[in-house]
Specification:
430 residues, alpha+beta, Uridine Diphospho-n-acetylenolpyruvylglucosamine Reductase, domain 3, Vanillyl-alcohol Oxidase, Chain A, domain 3, 2 domains, five-stranded antiparallel β-sheet, disordered C terminus
Length: 430
């Protein structure tokens, strides 16, 4: 019988609560303790807590400390961290996994281990390789990062008629090189009623509006950011801004419910700017498909300074953007699901020429079963390599070695888990 581990948030492909075989669900959502130590600049958080709860507890203790995780407050800490979670602080401080100090895990033999007792190989694996392949993670100890008392945000939207093509083209060339205190997410959304595409630039800047305007006018003058476009606020208020809760009290971060929509996500990495004629063809394809949004998250800064093998997450230097393909829908039924999912596949295929290759990269926390699956309970190295190299590139083989060392019989398994090596007896005698 299969064991499925659910930390407390959500999973785009439902692997934390759905399987094709009989399973037992281990629900960790009540393990929500968060202990913040400002003197040490650390926090220990159990995996059932949400990002919103973590942010709230940090804010209660300090107005100048934060943790570089995501912007959706209902995401569960366990899956987010173990899968290499990112957020708007990543250009300054890296990923969640780059700021993990220790962890507590229950292994296949029922032993409760910390970093010292589990060893550096397993500790390496659960910081970006997905925790559910290796054991049951109970908690993480995290290093807190410093943020200014005042940060600045803006959200500016441009259409094709408002020079979105030139702005996007320029932004590609500076996104990974601009001041690391600045993170600008670019959302592309088709507007079929007006036959245009909206390009929305949403920013967090670790400083005041005056310096932000200077950075923007030097780096991307085409966007023409001015002080009235900017809003100065505290870091915790910026989290409300990013999660579209700006008019709500901070306590909304403690809510664990989220809209029960259907969704599909895919991912890519952009390493070379898209040519201008390619951008124009992208607009036409998005208008043709009508429903798929693209989200570009910039790299550079701290992300380019951390080696590809320091954690299982390998997509570091050389990447300009991580790209998310996003579609949500409310209609029930197989036909509706097939329609919307197919739209993401068509756009993903269209982007093949522009994105990373050999392998074409993918991001574990945007779980995507289209890129390959294994037979649950009998995961083969051959099958695992198909999706494993997309998620982990050259780190896949090291993850397999760790899996073989700590769970040779593959007790912890799912459709995209790390497989153990299954050695033939004659090879084992050598």
């Amino acid at each position: 019988m299969n064991l499925i581990i659910r930390s407390g948030g959500h999973d785009f492909e439902g692997l934390s609560y759905v399987s094709n075989i009989t399973f037992v669900l281990l629900d960790m959502s009540n393990l929500r303790s968060i202990n913040v130590n400002i003197e040490e600049e650390t926090t220990t958080v159990q995996v059932g807590a949400t990002i919103g709860e973590l942010y709230y507890k940090i804010w209660e203790k300090s107005k100048v400390h934060a943790f570089p995780a995501g912007v959706c407050p209902t995401v569960g800490v366990g899956g987010h961290i173990s899968g290499g979670g990112y957020g708007v602080l990543m250009r300054k401080y890296g990923l969640t996994v780059d700021n993990v100090i220790d962890a507590t895990i229950v292994d296949v033999n029922g032993r409760v281990l910390n970093r010292t007792s589990m060893g550096e190989d397993l500790f390496w694996a659960i910081r970006g390789g997905g925790g559910a392949s290796f054991g049951v993670i109970l908690s993480y100890k995290l290093h807190l990062v410093r943020v200014p008392e005042t940060v600045t945000v803006f959200r500016v939207s441009k259409t094709l008629e408002q020079n979105a093509t030139d702005i996007f083209n320029r932004w590609q060339y500076v996104a990974d090189k601009i001041d690391r205190d600045l993170f600008i997410r670019l959302n592309l959304k088709p507007d079929n009623t007006k036959n245009t595409v909206h390009a929305s630039f949403t920013a967090l800047f670790l400083g005041d509006s005056e310096r932000l305007v200077s950075v923007m006018n030097s780096g991307v003058p085409e966007l023409d950011i001015q002080k009235p476009d900017c809003k100065e606020m505290s870091w915790i208020e910026s989290e409300l801004f990013w999660s579209s809760n700006v008019n709500n009290p901070v306590e909304i971060l403690l809510e664990r419910s989220f809209s029960p929509k259907f969704s599909k996500r895919k991912s890519d990495y952009l390493q070379t700017p898209i040519p201008r004629d390619g951008i124009e063809s992208l607009w036409q394809k998005m208008l043709e498909l009508r429903v798929v949004e693209l989200v570009f998250n910039p790299y550079g800064g701290r992300m380019s300074e951390i080696g590809d093998s320091e954690t299982p997450f390998p997509h570091r230097a050389g990447n300009i953007f991580k790209i998310q393909y996003s579609v949500n829908w409310d209609e029930e039924g197989v036909e509706a699901a097939a329609y919307y999912v197919n739209q993401t596949r068509v756009l993903h295929e269209f982007m093949t020429h522009f994105v990373s290759k050999n392998p074409r990269g993918a991001y574990l926390n945007y779980r995507d079963l289209d890129i390959g699956t294994s037979v649950v309970g009998n995961n083969s190295y051959t099958d695992g390599k198909v999706y494993g190299e997309k998620y982990f590139k050259g780190n896949f083989d090291r993850l397999v070695k760790v899996k073989t060392m700590v769970d040779r019989d593959n007790f912890f398994t799912n459709e995209q888990s790390i497989p153990p090596l299954r050695m033939r007896k004659k090879n084992m005698r050598k």
